[in-house]
Amino acid sequence: MQPNWIVLSLTLAYMAVMGLISFSARRYAKSAGSFTSGGTRYHAFLIGFLLMSEFIGTATSVGTTQTAYKVGLSAAWNVLALAIGFLLYGVLLASRFKQLGENTISGALAKAYGRPTKLATSIIMIFALQIVAVSTYAGGGTILAGLLNVDRTSAIIITGAVATLYVSVGGMRSVIYTNVLHALVKYIGILVAVAFGLSQLGGLGALQERVPERMFAVDAVGWPQIFAWLVAGIGAVFSTQYVIQAINTVEDGRTARQASFYCALLLVPFGICAALVGVCAAALLPGIPAIQALPSLIARMDDLLAAVVVAGLAGSLFGTISALSIGAATLLYKDFYLSRLRTEEGASSLRFVRIATILVGLIPIPLAIFAPDILKVTFLAKSLRATLAVLVLFAFYAPHFGSPRAAVISILASLVLTIGWFLAGDPLGIDNAYVALVIPLVVMAFAQARKNAMPSTEPATSL
């Protein structure tokens, strides 16, 4: 089987257009601040599309179809959980983050809990973003391997190298413009994939006849898994670095809420369509590895349809990596470089943030080669952010609950115990997302109980 050069050429042409857009945005990234913020204000619908684009990368697309191939439409809960998260984010946090004026999650938590919490938050957030990058590379490598007819390892290395070059060009402004176009093409691509799959089967009715009835059950994946996805998804939305960066590019709190609601509205049909593609693949291509569900379906399309779907997947891959890399680089710049070594922005600051963007783009490559279950790896990163989500809610709605030291302990304990629980295979059937959720609740509650038990004349500074 030879590479499909027509599909490859059209996809490369699409990416060349994205490169031109990114290069044109370079002139607005003249400082580290403008590189990480975008340098202007944007419309709510544009930012809603941007937020959606960052959450529907190849890890979500390939991962959802992979899971749907095995369990059916209930795999869509993986994306629907994000939609619910953005609804709640719009109601509870969007305007508050905008009014706070901080474009990092660590800076927001530092307002309530101090510098140690700021540094601990940066560590866990950078780690979580790198995990998402691992799953993004793995999903992109899977698609590229089928397209180029190369092995998966080579595809991941190619993906990482190209994406890293793409990321470091135009900063946040290029991410906004290119990701909106990526999201549009990606949306069209998933609709094309659904239409193609159903047409191959003879319609939705024929699909239902070809697969077990449980594949269309709302809860086939299991309610424990659904609730775990909700915890992890809502936590990810509440505490992800690039969500805060995007929200801070709008005019005011009202616009921030609108952007969140637009994103939620756009996520629902995408999640359902991605899962439906997996079910179609199960009916058309029984017996293949689940991770090959979407690539194998693409391989059955004619050149033009395949080019649309692959272009959307490639675009979302590079767009997601851009957002992840800029998010991690912003944290490194603001929390570790600027606060210790510089008091003002300059050429050296811009150079640092560009180099940091490249480094955080390259580090996940070797790890992605050993990531067989994309959705599980992505889910771990969401779980880790559930701890930060709890602390964010405390910071805005109960700032005196617990203590700064307890907040630091919560973050560090969650980093160790949640990953340990994941690596142990989620013992006792308890998902690692629940571990990440419970740890800050228990630690902060214990700190509050200690404070309440202290005589009023003693300072309540210890855990």
TrEMBL record:
The keyword 4Fe-4S does not apply. The chain crosses the membrane at residues 6-23, 44-63, 75-94, 123-148, 154-172, 184-206, 226-247, 259-284, 304-332, 352-371, 377-399, 406-424, 430-447. One of its GO terms (cellular component) is plasma membrane. It is a multi-pass membrane protein. It is found in: Membrane. InterPro entries: Na/Glc_symporter_sf, Na/solute_symporter, Sodium:Solute_Symporter. Belongs to the sodium:solute symporter (SSF) (TC 2.A.21) family. PANTHER family: SODIUM-SOLUTE SYMPORTER-RELATED, SODIUM/PROLINE SYMPORTER-RELATED. This is Sodium:solute symporter family protein. The lineage of its organism: Bacteria, Pseudomonadati, Pseudomonadota, Alphaproteobacteria, Hyphomicrobiales.
